[in-house]
């Protein structure tokens, strides 16, 4: 489904990724320096070094990541106790795909809080349908790595995987919503909790609503550490990581809106 969109989005992101642009600026400046094109070399090196200083001194990543994380308020499981919960969905994305495939052992990345909260929710609402949604274009033993890792994690924690529905064909958030909806076929009025990273929640909610599924957002995995708009933390690697994540998420929101995968540019409560 939408294979052209999937691969074109990967290519576009590769070209506009801030960390790659920084490397290209510095590498181009060095090549121009070797070629004795000093004026052009100074321009490229100045842009690259200026970008490094800008990212190091100012937490620009937090500034543009924070609105994504604040879009949907934090949710507590006990606040939903008075309501019937029909199902709980966890989106894949917390799996360390390449290292899991390389070492034949499951691994998780820094979004692993998705698993913790999902397990907490299915224990809080034992009668709710359980759904893990996440395939991957990366395969291990002919299975999507996300799916394989998820089953390993749940089994290791003594969670009965026979009670969990696994949607393992989706390759992005849009396909998460489409394939999950086709698998579950929720009835109108059913209450389903959606678990994913806070910054990813606006895009996820947008596509699920577009699919006709008005889910209850349950954001987790907060990353911003900014306390006020004037903070300076001199943390190049951390600031660059959050800046890159923020640019990727905002780019995804724009792409999904322009291609009709969501009805709103910045879905909210």
What do these coordinates show?
This protein is an alpha/beta fold and 269 residues long. The protein has two domains: 3-68 and 234-258, no CATH class; 76-220, 3-Layer(aba) Sandwich (Rossmann fold). Helices cover 51% and strands 11% of the residues. The protein is built from ten helices and seven strands. It has helices spanning 3-16, 18-34, 38-57, 60-70, 97-103, 113-124, 145-156, 173-184, 201-210, 236-258; strands at 87-91, 129-133, 139-140, 143-144, 164-167, 192-197, 216-220. The protein has a five-stranded parallel β-sheet with strand order 5-2-1-6-7, with helices on both faces. It has a two-stranded antiparallel sheet with strand order 3-4. Strand 3 and strand 4 form a beta hairpin. Helix 2 packs antiparallel against helix 3 (38-57) and helix 3 crosses helix 10 (236-258). The longest helix is centred in the C-terminal third of the chain and has 23 residues, at 236-258. The model has no long low-confidence stretch (mean pLDDT 88).
């Amino acid at each position: 489904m939408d294979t052209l969109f999937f691969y074109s989005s990967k290519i576009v992101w590769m070209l506009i990724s801030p960390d790659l642009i920084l490397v290209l600026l510095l590498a181009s400046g060095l090549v121009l320096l070797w070629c004795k094109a000093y004026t052009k070399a100074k321009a490229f090196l100045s842009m690259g070094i200026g970008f490094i200083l800008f990212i190091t001194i100012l937490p620009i990543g937090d500034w543009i990541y924070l609105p994504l994380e604040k879009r949907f308020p934090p949710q507590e499981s006990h606040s939903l106790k008075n309501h019937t919960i029909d199902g709980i969905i966890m989106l894949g994305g917390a799996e360390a795909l390449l290292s899991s495939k390389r070492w034949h052992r499951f691994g998780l990345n820094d979004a692993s809080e998705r698993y913790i909260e999902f397990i907490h929710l299915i224990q809080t609402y034992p009668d709710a349908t359980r759904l893990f949604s996440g395939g991957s274009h990366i395969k291990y033993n002919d299975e999507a790595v996300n799916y394989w890792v998820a089953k390993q994690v749940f089994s290791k924690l003594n969670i009965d995987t026979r009670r969990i529905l696994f949607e393992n064909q989706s390759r992005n958030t849009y396909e998460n919503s489409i394939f999950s909806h086709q698998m579950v076929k929720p009835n109108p009025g059913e209450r389903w909790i959606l678990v994913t990273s806070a910054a990813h929640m606006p895009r996820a909610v947008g596509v699920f609503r577009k699919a006709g599924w008005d889910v209850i957002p349950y954001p987790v995995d907060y990353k911003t550490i900014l306390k006020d708009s004037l903070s300076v933390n001199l943390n190049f690697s951390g600031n660059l990581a959050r800046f890159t994540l923020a640019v990727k998420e905002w780019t995804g929101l724009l792409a999904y809106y322009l291609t009709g995968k969501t009805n709103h540019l910045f879905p909210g409560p």
